[in-house]
Amino acid sequence: MDTFFMGEYDIIVIGAGHAGCEAGLAASRMGKKTLMLSINLEAVAMMPCNPSIGGTGKGHLVREVDALGGEMGVNTDKTFIQSRMLNTAKGPAVHSLRAQADKTRYHLEMKKTIEKEPLLDMKQGEVVDLVIEDGKACGVVLRTGAVYRSRAVILATGTFLAGKIFIGDSVFDSGPNGLAPSMELAERLREYGLPMRRFKTGTPARALASSLDYSKMIPQDGDEEIVPFSFLNEELKREQIRCWLTYTNEKTHEVIRANFHRSALFGGKIEGVGPRYCPSIEDKVNRFADRKRHQLFIEPEGLDTEEMYIQGMSSSLPEDVQQAFYETIEGLENLKIVRPAYAIEYDCIDPLDLKMTLENRTLDGLFCAGQFNGSSGYEEAAAQGLMAGINAVLKLDGKEPFILDRSQAYIGVLIDDLVTKGTNEPYRIMTSRAEYRLMLRQDNADLRLTELGHEVGLVRQDRYDKYLEKKKAVELETKRLKRKMVSPERANPLLEQLGTAPIKTAQSLYELLRRPEVTYDNTAEIDAERPALTRHQRTTMEVEIKYGGYIQKQLSQIEKFKRLEGRKLSSEIDYSKIDGLRIEAQQKLNDLKPVSVGQASRISGVSPADINVLLIYLEKNRRKTADQGEKSEES
Amino acid sequence: MCETIAAISTAYGEGGIGIIRISGPESLGILRRIFSCKGSIESRRMTYGRIIDPEDSSIIDEVLAVYMKAPSTYTGEDVAEINCHGSTVSLRKTLALVLREGARMAEPGEFTKRAFLNGRLDLSQAEAVIDVIKAKADASYDAAISQMEGDLSRTVRQIRKNILDILVELTVNIDYPDEDIEQLTYEKLQTGIKAAENEVEELLATAGTGRMIKEGIRVAIVGRPNVGKSSLMNGLLRQSRAIVTEVPGTTRDTIEETVSIRNIPVYLIDTAGIRQTEDVVEKIGIERTKEAFNNADLIVFIVDASEPLTEEDEDILARLEGRRALILLNKTDLGNTVTPGEIADKSPNSDILYTCLLNGEGIKEIEDRIEELVYGGQLSQKDCVMVNNVRHEELLRRALQFLVDAETITKAGEALDIIEIDVREAYDLLGEIIGETVSDEVIDEVFSRFCLGK
Prior knowledge:
The complex is a heterodimer. Chain A is α+β, with helices and mostly antiparallel strands.
């Protein structure tokens, strides 16, 4: 095939899903001429599975992406049709925001944002090969023969790469949602020596809204008071839609059991590894045979469609079986399937082949993000896309990489887990994966990250100002509350009413706020000179007062953690030459080239004794260098 | 390096004194809290004083202590050293106190490592340091392996498994709010935490006996001068180390010897008599005797059975009250003036034996008694789990504290994610005993037990 040169960019992003969009936007907003390519522009910011953004851990990621100047939070705020704060009773660190998004509007709004971005070009086109020179990725070749050159390439292929769909016996090459798969690129990547593997995931059927009987289901409404995702938005008012809850029953399970043999999953056709947290309904029935019922949520896909998503019921059973088991469910007796459930298998990379910057170890200048890295979920993808975009730009500018550690962000936990420990299944973030959860709250994501996002040049002035304002407001108001004394006469009637012990002598409002029963809002009546705080300011201030003791405890743990994290390791070190390291440790360290002693300590196969040897080695080197420095100064 | 570390820095079971070394910013603070002396503690001045438990004001030992201000110290940090009596009992009690007051148990080779990292050792010593760390780590690795197969690790594993159950419940409730799972009640949570707490406590309770077996017991030999103390010592040692003479008061100082009796290390403290004396040297000896008497796990009181009880004998008998004691009616070859009945009247709970120590008669019975003391009661069962390592004991104690905290805040109705932090900390600390910390156990269990996901 003839190829021809079509243009030159700083950075090319392959894929326009949640990772690709953040990568492209970040790179162009940081001043780089960027090209985004997608097999089909209808797939820009497409949500091929559930119509929601956020949830436990995931909501934290969205807030972090937002705090760094990413787009996911803003776009969700523009297009959500129901919003809920989950886990409000389970502690401040795990409050988790989740919104039902209008899929079409989400896609259109994101597409429009990209189209309006001055330095960002978006084109429809299938990448069939990379341009590689001297082991460096420096461009792409499209199916049409068009060649675009660039100084860095970001791979964000999602489930398109060698995608294969399974519906019962029917197996065919396909990207998500019936879109064309990317077959040739998959072959090339294997040829280039990238360590590829197969993962799988699945999605349930979509049903026609009018074919469902809601009188048999339990309604699920959004919160009355809407908390926005983006720190840029304070108050949002919106008409919200309803979701519905119903259950499977013994009959459903009978139908599924009778047809196990027809499932692609049990037929041995699927070689890819699926995620445990996203099992198909046949998997649930098989593994939890004693459960009498499984719950499912019926969720609208958008305002301009009658399609309803059947959450909890993904399957790779044939269409006739799907129809049969869905019909056994209360409220779904007359269900009309609009799109059948399917399982999809795809190519992804072993993330141990990535650096902390998400740059590939095998090919220089090739950054990787999203499902391609073995993760799962829109939010996980967006977070990696953003970081890959930022780091690609920093590399081109010859600047220090931007790495978030485990004590700074869920993004740090996500990437560190992927590139240090690897994963055997599509990786999903969870709050329990974070060691310093009390610090990594969603309410303080801006306080943790916006300064850093501003430093790398992604956070714009309006966001930065808002952050500074919040930081100052929280500090000032906390100080004022410490000084604000309340007399027993004034406080006790309220305290009694709130069901908490009265005070004997005057106490500061700050002290009172540490009681579980007392909140900032319910003490307004005894605190006349209170300034007007925004919702984001209020939330953070209150959490930090209430949980001050625990936060302090966690801060000292973080300090300990930071000591090893701060000991940097050069990628030049040849660990096989370090005397005292065990052979296994030498190999693992040479393979992964950790950036810090802290990261090294998390690699499986590296023992505490090995870490001690490493510390000694570092100190030895430091002194050698210091000695040489002195000598050269003398001469 | 911000943490303060501590360890016994003299070799185990050797030497007349044992040194506890503390290094790190809290060194002086810890020393101040547990060491009482005349005047103030000055840097680089060896000071005489007492180690006192600040909780109950009990005296642990009389010691010499020194504080050395950074940076000109072995490790380059603030260092404190406490010279205790060589017995493991007072050493370990003092170390336990130091750990309780905020120091962490030093890892193998950690003082040397810090010394190097703080520039206190020169470059040529670096290789040696690596060897030290490696050798010690290997040794502790071997120890860890043998522990792994042991009962202790099995018990710790069981406790961890129970805590894991709690963690899994907490995690699934926190991370999967929308799922159709049983909501965790505070009542259930508290019951679970309390149960784990009890298990850790039970294990900790064995720490005393465990250490007795590993570190040995202290046996003080007391009695009037020339009653046969040195003969007993020799009998147990089966070698002539202490001088046996006919002149009263020859054994002027306490003499300590270590013997292995049925595989139990036993520290024998041969004491001077307790009789009133004007002799200065002997006076010191008598003071030591009283101290040895107070610190002993077992007191062997030797009475000359051929002569009537003296005032001094009566004095000692009176001091035996509440102590574990074995009374030997010695010199039976010369007569039986003192009867067991007479002794039993005055010291009803003591064990009484007839001996003729010069001829070696009664030594075997004494050994039987010592063995019985250590393995006595329920502890004689072979499958009993014991904690015999200060590091393990410390980890258990810290884990227990986190469980107690978790229970307290559960009672107070604190949020689940706050409770989870303490429970997880306890879980991780217990993991350190058996060498398991970083892992995905919780997440793995969540998925194997609960049906989750869209």
